[in-house]
Amino acid sequence: MTKSESLFERARKVAPGGVHSPVRGFRGVGGVPRFIESARGACLRDVEGKAYVDFCLSWGPLILGHGDEEVAREVHRAIDRGWTYGAAEPYSLELAELIVSKIPWAEKVRFVNSGTEAVMSALRVARAATNRPKILKFDGCYHGHTDSMLVRAGSGLAEMASPDSAGVSAAVASETIVVPLNDLKALEEAFGLHGPQIAAVIVEPVPANNGLLLQTDEFLPALCKIARKAGALVIFDEVITGFRVAFGGMAELTGLKPDLVTYGKIIGGGFPVGAYGGRVELMDLVAPSGPVYQAGTLSANPVAMAAGLATLKKLLRDNPYEKLAARTEKLARSLEKVTGAKVQNFASLFWPVLGKVATADGMVRAPNEIPAEQKGRFAEVFHALLARGFYLAPSGYEVAFLSTAHSDTQLDGLVQALGEISGRSAS
Ligand SMILES: *Cc1c(COP(=O)(O)O)cnc(C)c1O
Q: 288 preceded by cis ω (within 30°)?
């Protein structure tokens, strides 16, 4: 028995599925999750002492890689001062000022502890601001695990969404409208049916939680137009894309200004931080300045604030975005060459499509366009890569991340390993 196997056996006795977030449990790829003991740069090391080049990177927060020295220094300094005060302090002020100064559509921000909380709170603000009950989301976008977002489409647009998790009530689900991605007609129809009831449209401006479902360039501008014509707010959920595709996320890249924006992942530099922001009149609805209640015992934790601040300052100083995108583009094209599979990529995100794509333009833009073989073939590739020392997110529906810590040698290694694997499986 390996150490990971015996730890997993113990873990399953004390935690559901042995893990504290579902995909970590390797259900999507089979086998026993590797227990990770430490990490540095672009590498994870498991309890057996085996090293892996990491393309999961804690699911997105670690754009600078593991254990970045500048971040570590600020975190140590913060801990030496004490680690939570439950009082006003200058550290969240500094991070908020930095964000507000660089991201004009976030005139004020409120820090919370996760992306889920940021979304949950932004939806509450949207409902309060519009005095409307319903939220429109897209099938294939993930917005954390708040009840109203754990829903799937009903049988028709006139149907309300149904719960997509046990424990979500039909009543809560009925307040959410689910529309397909890449289908502006369906969006218009939904607004035609429910327009005056819709408080907000929430969207991952680059859907990256169900594969990397790249939308056409017209999608976001049209969405904003349709929503605003009906008096609904636009919420960009930039929990993955914020500080990743550009410092100001997709809003910066597209020039589209969301009414409310949610952040998570990179904003805490690997510590638990989420945030939501928007125009002053919307954010001033939040307690204690307004009637929308939202609070947190450990919100704006000073150690997490220091990690986030160090991360964002380094990103602003080094501006790694163009280089990261170019390296990802090169990697994706090399991977396509050696595997024959399609690799969809955007900025420092990439996602292999394992199977035949049946769409007219050859792109996968919606969940129902993902090849049926994706799950099975990804599981094989995942384990073959794991054996060779490469760690992808353990699911074929999750994207891979590039960090500034990856070396060219490590990227070439991935290309070579996938070449070997494809060659073998083809023979
Ligand atoms: C990860 C993610 C969330 C949820 O964030 P947590 O910190 O896991 O709660 C919400 N929205 C998007 C787009 C995400 O990628």
A: yes
